[in-house]
Amino acid sequence: MALTVLVPIAVLLMLPVFWLLSTALKSPQQLSDPSVALWPSPAHWENFLTATTFIDFWPYLGNSLLLSTVFGILTTISSAMTGYGFARLKGRGKSALFAVLIAMMMMPAIVTLVPTYLLFAQIGLVGTYWPWVMWGIAGAPYLIFLYRQFFAGLPKELEEAAILDGCNRFRVFWTIFLPLSRPVIITVFVLSFSNVWGDFIAPNLLLDTSNTTLAVALAGGYVDSQGHPLNQLVAAGSILYVIPVIVIFVLAQRQYVQGVSGSGIK
To answer: Which of 27, 93, 187, 238 makes the best surface tag, with the fewest CB within 10 Å?
Structure first.
């Protein structure tokens, strides 16, 4: 019974992917000819090579990898420290701050993008990667919430025993709580990495042409001399663009599922 429902849903979800691959394998003439079958014959696999040479694909890919990795690492660490504070430390106003955190989870990021741009412009950070460094150091509300839920479910005896042995709060966090949260760490890194990797608006607004990301380059780089989009190259470049994220998710799939489910049920 379950298969009869899941198989049609899976087929429907794969149709856009199949259409994208079909477009990537067609020539401009095949794209403009409605009589050409969905799967072209011959298939133009050279479109993938052309997609990497038509624009500065590899430098833009390096920019995206650098920006996503740095942001992912910084966000993973800062969110873990903040989540530990919310889960295990006592202090005046903690409940109010946590309520603010929950409220921030419901606020679309696009709402704060223009004020953030004006702020970074005033301090001279537009055109650099420093905004992503600062965002990474500040953490992310949802990821802090994941850590908080996970750390709140760990037994108090671990913390009390470590403190009796002479550990301070940071050492307890770094040597005991953080190693136990490996599934959440991987989940947070995958989420933060993919968030920056797939972002178009912030790099388009804050970065220059020379140091922008692959997402921005794909959106406006594949055009002919008249400014018309080369759809077969757009499709080929888009397929190449999603491969790193797919690889990361496949490698981290088990830990990712454990991290989300383990934090959500606490």
So the answer is: 93
